[in-house]
Amino acid sequence: MGICETALLCFSLLGPASTENRSNIDLHSGSSFTRAGSVPVPTGATSRALFQNSTAAIADNASLVQFSIYGGKLYFRNLHAFNPEWAGCCYNYYIDLTTDDGKSMYAYFMLQYANRARIVLWRESVAPGPIQQMGNWS
Questions:
Q1: pLDDT, tens digit, for every residue of 11-34?
Q2: Cα 16 to Cα 13, 20, 36, distances in angstroms
Q3: Residue pLDDT, tens place only, 46-105
Q4: Taken in order 78, 84, 88, 93, is the CA torsion positive or negative?
Q5: Rounded CA gap, 126 and 56, in Å?
Q6: Closest Cα partner for 51 from 85, 93, 27, 12?
């Protein structure tokens, strides 16, 4: 199942559906993906490859993810508990709450947090920086 096959997540990442922001095939690699703004969102085999590269922190219960909000950013404090390759506490990974993407991710995170539901946080690498994608794919 692709990330945009669920209406809530597709709306939160892409806004109202538009074909200009989405693509199905990367012509260079043949990998399947959709786009959230300018960031490719993995699906199918591409998604599985990302998890094998340990670029995702997966929490089966989002309420176990510790965070703090400071200076317009939500900082994740314990993502290393969900993937030991990620850096430990405290200000390594964040969502910029001043951007539209950040606001959408924050809303989705709070929904999953309140429901104690599964959440996937993804970056192109485990190096500290902003969370680039969030969802429930895997």
A1: 334 443 333 333 333 333 333 333
A2: 9, 11, 11
A3: 444 444 446 899 999 999 999 999 999 999 999 999 999 999 888 999 999 999 999 999
A4: negative
A5: 8
A6: 85
pLDDT at 41 over 70: no
Decide if 75 contacts 93 (C-beta within 8 A): yes
Q: Which residue has the tokens 């400071």?
A: 70
**Amino acid, single-letter form, for residue 18:** S
pLDDT value at residue 138: 64
- What pLDDT score was predicted for residue 24? 36
Q: Calculate ∠ Cα 86-96-21, nearest 5°.
A: 95
Q: What is the DSSP string of 91-119?
A: SSEEEETTSHHHHHHHHHHHHHHHHT--E
Q: Which residues contact 106 (CB under 8 A, 6 or more apart)?
A: 74, 95, 97
Query: Which amino acid belongs to residue 108?
Result: Y
**Residue 16 burial class via C-beta count within 10 angstroms: exposed 0-12, middle 13-18, buried 19 and up:** exposed
Q: d(Cα 86, Cα 126) in Å, to the nearest integer?
A: 5
Residue with tokens 């690498």: 125
